[in-house]
Design a protein that fits this description.
The complex is a heterodimer of chains A (364) and B (1073).
Chain A (H helix, E strand, L loop, with lengths): L1 E9 L6 H8 L4 H10 L2 H5 L3 H22 L2 H6 L7 H12 L3 H7 L6 H5 L1 H8 L3 H18 L6 H9 L3 H16 L13 H15 L24 H6 L5 H4 L1 H15 L6 H21 L3 H5 L1 H15 L4 H14 L9 H18 L3
Helix pairs in contact in A: 2-4, 9-10, 10-12, 11-12, 12-13, 13-21, 16-17, 16-20, 17-19, 20-21
Chain B lengths: L2 E11 L13 E7 L2 E4 L16 E5 L1 H6 L2 E7 L7 E8 L13 E9 L3 E14 L14 E2 L9 E16 L13 H29 L4 E11 L5 E14 L7 H5 L2 H6 L18 H7 L6 H26 L3 H16 L17 E15 L6 H8 L9 H4 L7 H18 L4 E12 L2 E13 L12 H9 L22 E3 L7 E3 L2 E2 L10 E15 L5 H29 L4 E11 L3 E13 L9 E4 L5 H24 L6 H7 L15 E3 L5 E3 L11 E4 L2 H12 L7 E3 L11 E15 L7 H22 L6 E11 L5 E13 L1 H25 L2 H8 L9 H9 L4 H10 L2 H17 L1 H18 L24 E2 L8 E18 L7 H23 L4 E15 L4 E17 H10 L5 H11 L1
Parallel strand pairs in B: 9-11, 13-23, 18-20, 22-25, 26-28, 30-32
Antiparallel strand pairs in B: 1-4, 1-8, 2-3, 2-5, 5-6, 7-8, 10-12, 11-12, 13-15, 14-15, 16-17, 19-21, 20-21, 23-24, 27-29, 28-29, 31-33, 32-33
Classes of the chains: A mainly alpha (364), B alpha+beta (1073).
Amino acid sequence: MTSELDIFVGNTTLIDEDVYRLWLDGYSVSDAVALRVRSGILEQTGATAAVLQSDTMDHYRTFHMLERLLHAPPKLLHQLIFQIPPSRQALLIERYYAFDEAFVREVLGKKLSKGTKKDLDDISTKTGITLKSCRRQFDNFKRVFKVVEEMRGSLVDNIQQHFLLSDRLARDYAAIVFFANNRFETGKKKLQYLSFGDFAFCAELMIQNWTLGAIGEAPTDPDSQVDDMDVDLDKEFLQDLKELKVLVADKDLLDLHKSLVCTALRGKLSVFSEMEANFKNLSRGLVNVAAKLTHNKDVRDLFVDLVEKFVEPCRSDHWPLNDVRLFLNQYSASVHSLDGFRHPTLWDRYMGTLRGCLLRLYHD
Amino acid sequence: MPGKLKVKIVAGRHLPVMDRASDLTDAFVEVKFGNTTFKTDVYLKSLNPQWNSEWFKFEVDDEDLQDEPLQITVLDHDTYSANDAIGKVYIDIDPLLYSEAATVISGWFPIYDTIHGIRGEINVVVKVDLFNDLNRFRQSSCGVKFFCTTSIPKCYRAVIIHGFVEELVVNEDPEYQWIDRIRTPRASNEARQRLISLMSGELQRKIGLKVLEMRGNAVVGYLQCFDLEGESGLVVRAIGTACTLDKLSSPAAFLPACNSPSKEMKEIPFNEDPNPNTHSSGPSTPLKNQTYSFSPSKSYSRQSSSSDTDLSLTPKTGMGSGSAGKEGGPFKALLRQQTQSALEQREFPFFTLTAFPPGFLVHVGGVVSARSVKLLDRIHNPAFVGIMGNTRSYKLLDWNSFNSDEPETRDAWWAEIRQEIKSHAKALGCHAVVGYSESTSICEEVCILSASGTAAVLNPRFLQDGTMEGCLEQRLEENLPAGCGFCHIPYDELNMPFPAHLTYCCNCRKQKVPDVLFTTIDLPTDAIVIGKGCLIQARLCRLKKKAQAEANATAISNLLPFMEYEVHTQLMNKLKLKGMNALFGLRIQITVGENMLMGLASATGVYLAALPTPGGIQIAGKTPNDGSYEQHISHMQKKINDTIAKNKELYEINPPEIAEEIIGSPIPEPRQRSRLLRSQSESSDEVMELDLSHGKKDAFVLEIDDTDAMEDVHSLLTDVPPPSGFYSCNTEIMPGINNWTSEIQMFTSVRVIRLSSLNLTNQALNKNFNDLCENLLKSLYFKLRSMIPCCLCHVNFTVSLPEDELIQVTVTAVAITFDKNQALQTTKPHVEKSLQRASTDNEELLQFPLELCSDSLPSHPFPPAKEHLESASSNSGIPAAQRATSVDYSSFADRCSSWIELIKLKAQTIRRGSIKTTVTVEKASPMGEGNFRNRSAPPCANSTVGVVKMTPLSFIPGAKITKYLGIINMFFIRETTSLREEGGVSGFLHAFIAEVFAMVRAHVAALGGNAVVSYIMKQCVFMENPNKNQAQCLINVSGDAVIFVRESELEVVSAQQPTANCQPLCTGGEVTT
């Protein structure tokens, strides 16, 4: 006796959260059944393995049918085929678009192209995440990217509107899209200690301050196609950053800056002497990063540079986080007292974001 | 010009990409009704076109309005080649034809294609303007309401229950062999869908005409079926119960009901009907004679003028004298006489209802069934062949008009079977058959026709006009002890139709009752039940040699009696094993296949307090000298006894001890007899009566003399009870559970197994089949475990044998949650109550009813214990029903109407309530963590799809049905030539059933409804050809579209106006009305 056909269709579509997770994690039906057996469900319910097999198959089939709709979540809301309560719809979407930290760290900043897709095998072996799940996550990134890439307006809003994600998840996707678009290098060994959250934090600051949409003057000219884009960095701003070079190129200015910072911080830092000794190096590093951002390649290496030029030197001198904060605050603020410096607004736009990023990046 | 149909095409969405180059579609819409077609403009390059068309107007006869579906086709415009069809929507506009139902159909409909399934949606608005038609010869029956519900619909009151109506139409099947077809599959499927839609429209219209002729205004328990007879054609047949219904919500309809008798009553129900009296002289028109000349119900037309007076006169005189005799015996005889006179004028005193107004059912005799094996190729007809040549013609043929000289029509077949049922009922001393249903099973050219029902004696009160009022009747009715009266034998004790073991009723001790009762109806609401009920199934397979034509038919009819016998024995044994004594909702399905016959009987077992305690099961060995064998036997015996004890505990069956003392020996005498009468007849009229009384053997003794018997005993013990927290039944409600909460989940589950052809023995077959059913149930319990505590209600198994080695089982049921704590509380009062009844009835019998009669409900003199019981059991049917029998109808209706008025007034409250729910839903969602930015709206709140509930039951727990919007009767075909790509057979059927649900929901929503009640999947024919990567499936579903309002929302209303009248209705009213 073999079962040729075995289905269960409810007027309200049954969604088993545990099975959904197994499906999202890319387990085959038989693996999923084995995992469920191990969870002790048979003992709890008195069911047999055959029942579990049939139940799992059924759920997998339902999820497979739902997947097409999940690719465009608004469709899931308006479709008539599956009657699913709104809270369940939200759960389906949220879980489908959720991703693994390990996976996203591998892909973050990479071009979401076929080439990367081919590397998924390696990522799967490396992270222990099934290839199927890797593919789903990669395709999600790519799908969201494609939809919002050319869109005007707030990146998070656009993502939320088209994919009905929660605010938190939409922000994460905004970071992924932003990183993918600007191709920031995140895979270097130096950067391995950083979590996705660290990068997402930086991405949000950069989106808020360094992109075209950040200036807030865009809506005045509705015909201009370049305005109000959250995904691209403001090219003009990057160009202007060259002007900051004067802060390290002009020896007097650099000395004045140093003395202003040292006077203000004397007695307040536990690592004052180290700071004093390193000030010029650190300042040179931070200003040079700014000046180099005109080149795409250097933009990509932004995080590598920040870690190399600032995080690592401070860390080797064992700066406490609070000292870093005090230093950066003073370092940024003191520039306003430099008489010869003519770009305080530009400096604030640059340093405001960078300070936030550096503080986030500064940990073990 | 009796009607104007107006259609507007608003928009489309989610259309498929039809132009690969642009990834877009240039869609337009064709709207077709009858032979008229309109087109919208082409909406270029969009998957979400906004046509916003003008109103397309069709001026049509109301006859066409009833027959024809509105056909909407969405196409992709192509400048160079033919336009590609995207899909179609068929809309049945019948609900718009009677004023009480929907007034407009408006909403999003899935665009359906028989090859691709649902492809996007279309927004359509449909309206009908009907003009009064004074033509007395008209052929339409607009205004007759149809209900699938097999009880009096919740917001109506039965004025008269007229009786059985039936009709069938026959046509050639546009695709009698789907594999070798001439047209494209799509064209063929669409032709078939359209034809069946037309045929069911015509059938419904014809039944409606019969109802008008009987002066009814509604059909209740309408059941329409298709017989796909292959080459010999396609039969669409329907049965139902004609009624005159009165809407409870319109206050105007009540006032006359309270004060004045028959005459006004008669007219009120027709107020939505343009001109009812024109039909009274029906038979004089030649047209009608032609229509009905070969229909078995022709007698209606003969009767219609004369019977009216007869019906209203005879029973009335009978009533007068009946009231004088307080003794049960003479009264019974009298009642029988009355009913007889009322019913004997009907050719078939059948009722498709399974639940009845209080007091309607007087006695129940037992199950009557008849089967007949027919050869389909015998009805070869030259006229038919002529039509078949013309494949493009969908003109409907009335089979009768072509076969007028052919005696062997299907009408005649059914008439023959019905006649047999009638005579069986008569043999049981009954004049009516209730819970009546008909079915067929077809394999190649052999067809088994089956009919079954429950023989019963009915109260004539509902069977004729104007006898609703009057104290005389009320008193008469009180004479019947509530809760056990229906169990009392209707037949003469000294002249029993079959040997049976009778005892005095354990409840009233006045009348005789049988020891076991089998019925096809739902448990009467006033029946006194001890403990809970459970689903009982008998399953059986029998191998049959492959044979042709007549030899095959003979082989089948030879096997049938043995199957019936074994199914019956199994049922009886399983019932005993559960410690119960009655079966309700019994449905025996015999399915014929190429090389086997399958029997599946499902019923709900209960312990009726009125019937004696069932004895146990004893096992006897044939070889008593073998010691180890003896030991084995005693071991088995112990196991069985344990099981019975366990079951009694499980189902909370603790009958009162006193009863046994009074009656004497609780162990029934060895000569147990069944109440199942049936016969098989082949095409020739030979009728074979079968004695099911097990010869002279003791029915409770199972003799283990061979391995077969061993198997039987084993299979008895292999049925595992549902896991704790689960109950199941195949009736509307589970006896013993009455505190339903509002969560429901309707589902359909289909399984097909392939038998290994090597070891096909009856035993192996039985085991396979048994496992299939048991595993299916286990799967259901597992899937629905999150709903515990819950009950699977209306569990409906259907077996088919699509191919040699395939068995297909389809189950549709609804899982309803209930409150466990309350359930425990209420079971106690039940027992108490029955005890109380048993002891007090003797003394109180005389005063009790009279008092009740004079008092209105709020101040009835029940002892405090009963008051408590009523308030404790929120939805309890028992007290409610008892109340209803004693309280006169008009005041009851009054209360109800004022209550519904209140609902209308408080509509705002309800609306507010629904908003509230959406808010809570948002909160419940995992993403609603409160960190939405203000600039973005919550993503999931803007869903436009309203929830539509579906249930096979006639009610929605925790809710009140406020309006019936019309019948839903849909037929779909789905076919694929890429089976593997669609996920194999499971993927294909899963998607299709989901699509069918979606289309039903969309139609209900478009009618303005939010639920389908009495939903049934009547057919699910699945055929596959994996080698060709093909599969095809046909599904037919029906139900009643309704609007319901949650009782929790209504409670606000009742809390604000806590009048004594209002309260009991909110709690217990649902079951009664």
